[in-house]
Amino acid sequence: MHHLIAPSLLASDFANLQRDIELVNASEADWFHVDVMDGMFVPNISFGFPVIKAIKKHAQKPLDVHLMIVDPDRYLKDFKEAGADSITVHYEACPHLHRTIQVIKQLGCKASVAINPATPVANLVDIIADLDMVLVMSVNPGFGGQKFIEHTYTKIAQVKTLAANANPNLKIEVDGGVDIGNAAKLVEAGASVLVAGSSVFSASDPSLAISQLKHL
């Protein structure tokens, strides 16, 4: 299976958001990655519902919405209504993870769980069969432009092994510090979705940067 590219709008130019959305629409990217931060689960605040609705209005590709928030269950329906096609919740933020995943699926969205760099892959053993995707964080969530954590390759391989029998069609997404220098190794380890922020939107030619990540 060819890997997918999901440019992270957190790294886009917020003053020219529609321009950057159109750029992604016209590129070889597959999804839009939308980071939602509440200032509590992570030390930063980002997009809310009005901005996601505005993104959805112009986006011609699915919205991959990553919730870095406490108590995401309160807002799942709102994110669906705002335009989310896929919803990712954090393992660390969900005390009743099976129920949360069931609700996401009942809403008609793809269901994904993210794990922070210090969270063991083994913690997913009882939920992995129910998921559409696992997001392996390759930086500590909260800010763009951070240094990639090398142990990520091992964690991706561990997720792939865990899913081999229970959920062979599981997508494995990686987010944080992804660029042309590590992308091929990530895909080789088992990643099927690459989230790229700074390496796309800070590039002199973002469309070319996306194409290079797509054709490794």
Task: Using brief descriptors, characterize the structure shown.
Ribulose-phosphate 3-epimerase, 33% helix, cobalt, 8 helices, 216 residues, isomerase, TIM Barrel, 8 strands, metal-binding, alpha/beta
Instruction: Report the structural category.
Output: alpha/beta
The total beta strand count reads 8
Main sheet characteristics: 8 strands, parallel
The CATH topology annotation reads as TIM Barrel
Cofactor: Zn(2+); Fe(2+); Mn(2+); a divalent metal cation
Pathway: Carbohydrate degradation
Catalytic activity: D-ribulose 5-phosphate = D-xylulose 5-phosphate
InterPro entries: Aldolase_TIM, Ribul_P_3_epim, Ribul_P_3_epim-like, RibuloseP-bd_barrel
Short description:
With about 220 residues, the chain is α/β, with parallel strands linked by helices.
Question: What would your notes on this structure say?
Answer:
Helix content is 33%, strand content 19%. The chain is α/β, with parallel strands linked by helices. It has a single domain, classed as TIM Barrel (Alpha-Beta Barrel). The chain has an 8-stranded parallel beta sheet. α3 (76-82) links the parallel β3 and β4 (86-90). α2 packs parallel to α3 (76-82).
Topology, element by element:
Blueprint: E1 4-7, H1 17-26, E2 32-37, H2 49-58, E3 63-68, H3 76-82, E4 86-90, H4 97-106, E5 110-115, E6 133-137, H5 152-166, E7 171-175, H6 183-189, E8 193-196, H7 198-201, H8 206-214
Parallel strand pairs: 1-8, 2-3, 3-4, 4-5, 5-6, 6-7, 7-8
Cofactor: Zn(2+); Fe(2+); Mn(2+); a divalent metal cation
Catalytic activity: D-ribulose 5-phosphate = D-xylulose 5-phosphate
Binding site for a divalent metal cation: 33, 35, 66, 175
